[in-house]
């Protein structure tokens, strides 16, 4: 049976009729090639619970997710013009697609729909990291997150201690999830073509955390450590006891934060706890 979505005009055809010129302020780089949107949707399947898409824009990825069998897809889009553009798709997919006009930075998407809940998105690059940090605070509400980032951010998410791009985001993601880069998407697949390359990352929240810790303490400790990433830990943590305090935790005071394991960051966060302010 043909899905009514397959009978819609192509997105390129609709774009030429309706006004949806990409706005830089909204991080709009549209992905219109179904080879890539299908590849992203395929890597997030199967779709058993609620799928949340952030920033559907003209709906290329939205179509792929629906065509691959999502039962309930809730899309959050800030741009009113895109909401109008998506009307036809919403009708063709009824009742599986809900579209909410909202700012994803203030939407409690972790409460949307039912488990197993997952997020899929070609994220607006200007707010991709704050969005990820917000969702990490509710990581156990999600089964998986399949997200496109600027390649450098993707590399930071999956970095291991000792790698030059290991940073705050790497520690938080490693503590809460297992994350891997699935594939890259060339810049010329987007309209307009961005100046940076992109990569799709899949994060699977850990059911059992490897080390006990509190997220707000870990956030603070990693902030202190990586604010001065070239300094040895004994200097960055001087006012908290420096060398002596670090040695008592079996942490080498002479190393730099990019060489410290997630386990040791958790130990440090637990030890300093409320002192961190
Ligand atoms: N998913 C579409 C695609 O792949 O072609 C569009 C991706 S584009 C990189 C990012 C989308 O996020 C745009 O549609 C943009 O309007 C939307 N967006 C930007 N800021 C947003 C926000 N704060 N909340 C929700 N959506 C936002």
Verbal overview:
This protein has 277 residues and is an alpha/beta fold. The protein folds into two domains: 4-205, 3-Layer(aba) Sandwich (Rossmann fold); 215-276, Orthogonal Bundle (Helicase, Ruva Protein, domain 3), CATH 1.10.8.100. Helices cover 36% and strands 18% of the residues. The protein has helices spanning 11-17, 34-44, 60-67, 80-85, 87-93, 128-136, 151-158, 168-176, 215-227, 233-236, 242-248, 262-272, and strands at residues 30-31, 50-54, 72-77, 97-101, 118-122, 144-150, 177-185, 190-191, 198-205. Strands 4-3-2-5-6-9-7 form a seven-stranded mixed β-sheet. Strands 1-8 form a two-stranded antiparallel sheet. It is elongated, with a radius of gyration of 21 Å. It starts with 10 loop residues before the first helix and ends in a 5-residue tail after the last helix. The mean pLDDT is 96. The site of S-adenosylmethionine has 24 residues, from strand 1, helix 3 and strand 3.
């Amino acid at each position: 049976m043909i899905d009514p979505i397959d009978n819609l005009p192509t997105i390129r055809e609709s774009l030429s009729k309706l006004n949806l010129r990409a706005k830089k302020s909204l991080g709009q780089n549209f992905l219109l090639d179904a080879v890539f949107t299908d590849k992203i949707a395929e890597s997030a399947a199967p779709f058993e619970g609620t799928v949340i898409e952030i920033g559907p824009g003209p709906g290329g990825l939205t179509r792929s997710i629906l065509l691959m069998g999502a039962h309930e897809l809730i899309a959050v889009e800030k741009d009113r013009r895109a909401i109008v553009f998506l009307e036809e798709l919403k009708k063709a997919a009824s009742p599986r697609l809900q579209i909410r006009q909202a700012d994803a930075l203030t939407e409690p998407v972790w409460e949307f729909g039912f488990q197993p809940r997952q997020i899929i998105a070609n994220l607006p690059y200007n707010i991709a990291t704050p969005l990820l940090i917000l969702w990490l605070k509710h990581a156990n509400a999600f089964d998986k997150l399949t997200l496109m980032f600027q390649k450098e951010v993707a590399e930071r998410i999956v970095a291991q201690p000792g790698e030059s791009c290991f940073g705050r985001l790497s520690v938080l993601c490693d503590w809460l999830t297992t994350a891997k880069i699935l594939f890259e998407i060339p810049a010329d697949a987007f309209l307009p073509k961005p100046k940076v390359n992109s990569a799709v990352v899949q994060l699977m929240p850990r059911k059992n955390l490897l080390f006990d810790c509190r997220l707000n303490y870990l956030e603070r400790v990693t902030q202190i450590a990586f604010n001065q990433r070239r300094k040895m830990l004994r200097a960055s943590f001087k006012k908290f006891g420096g060398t002596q305090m670090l040695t008592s935790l079996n942490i080498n005071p002479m190393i730099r934060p990019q060489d410290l394991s997630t386990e040791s960051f958790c130990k440090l966060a637990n030890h300093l706890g409320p002192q961190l302010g």
